[in-house]
Amino acid sequence: MLSTTQRTTLGREKDRGSTDRNDLHEVLDTGLICHLGVIVNGHPMVVPTGYGRVGDTLYLHGSTGARSLRAADGAEVCVTVTHLDGVVLARSIFNHSVNYRSAIIYGRAALVTDPEERLIGLRALTEQLAPGQWDYARQPSRKELAATAVLALSLEEASVKIRRGAPKDEEEDYALPVWAGVLPLVTSWGEPEPDPVLPEGIDTPVHILGRE
Amino acid sequence: MLSTTQRTTLGREKDRGSTDRNDLHEVLDTGLICHLGVIVNGHPMVVPTGYGRVGDTLYLHGSTGARSLRAADGAEVCVTVTHLDGVVLARSIFNHSVNYRSAIIYGRAALVTDPEERLIGLRALTEQLAPGQWDYARQPSRKELAATAVLALSLEEASVKIRRGAPKDEEEDYALPVWAGVLPLVTSWGEPEPDPVLPEGIDTPVHILGRE
């Protein structure tokens, strides 16, 4: 079960809410980037960034010099992951909508200092974006690790919203001669594009070529 | 030219920054949803939502009951639109990255009260999500308009970041026998799915069928 704090309890569209922790994990595990919200000098700042999940901890990372990361350490943050699955075309303008799956996580982010946990977090971050690469590419050097900030955020306080399926129109609109339905949005991987300076003879690894 | 305030001036990765207002418009016009950041009870909140652009004004909307919209009226907000174009697979873990185009807009959002501007904003919002639908579907009723909050945000203070192309590896890593390149992420429209209760004889309109 997910939390039921004030900010994770839906005020509206309650039918779109899920309190199933498996749904939270599914939304997170199938995403590539999140939007991290922090308060910087009293103003909200929303930046796209990578993430990784280990159990019920979310890891974020970035340059130690990044404003957003510095502002997030020890502070209340909000992390949102959104999958847009389609546009819902209703008979009325008012009932137009989108099909989506989104997770919103609230909590206090904390810089990870334990070297082992930092590696666990970085591995999760790398594998989220590019499964198989952690064991394939060159490991981080001591200098590179020192330049990287890793933040941890508990998944304790989170809400999930999911909308699927056909439009919901007003009763009287169903008689209108207006097409209604869903235009699905499909996200897929294209053909891998080798670095132009890649030497001949280095084949594209299966974990990249066969990514689903 | 875009603004050069402190928060829109990149501290890092300056080569990814664009100060071209056309780039801002392009990132916004090709997007479907934004992530709206507001401060609610002292905490950041990031919600996915639709938007529309008219000139240098961004319009957001939502139910008059939505927490995020109520918090945004008259307040400093941050709106971020991100296109993820691919995963950049480098020879080292450290240099893994993503290809993306993102726009971050800062400013004070204000509820639009002028009836004519409200319609202009709603039209832009609808057409952003579903071009052609404003003139095709049933127009909003007076009651529906009353239930809809429209917010305006100036595009005055904005930053754009774009990363394209191959990985940038450390000089000494180019000799490694590691595949490197880009795995493109492709977003496309699927086949329109008619509402199961759609009467026979209502063809899918060209503006939906032929959407690019």
From TrEMBL, chains A, B:
Residues 10-22 have a biased composition (Basic and acidic residues). It holds the Pfam family Pyridox_ox_2. The lineage of its organism: Bacteria, Bacillati, Actinomycetota, Actinomycetes, Streptosporangiales. This is Pyridoxamine 5'-phosphate oxidase family protein. It comes from Nonomuraea cypriaca. InterPro entries: Pyridox_Oxase-rel, Split_barrel_FMN-bd. Residues 1-22 are annotated as: Disordered.
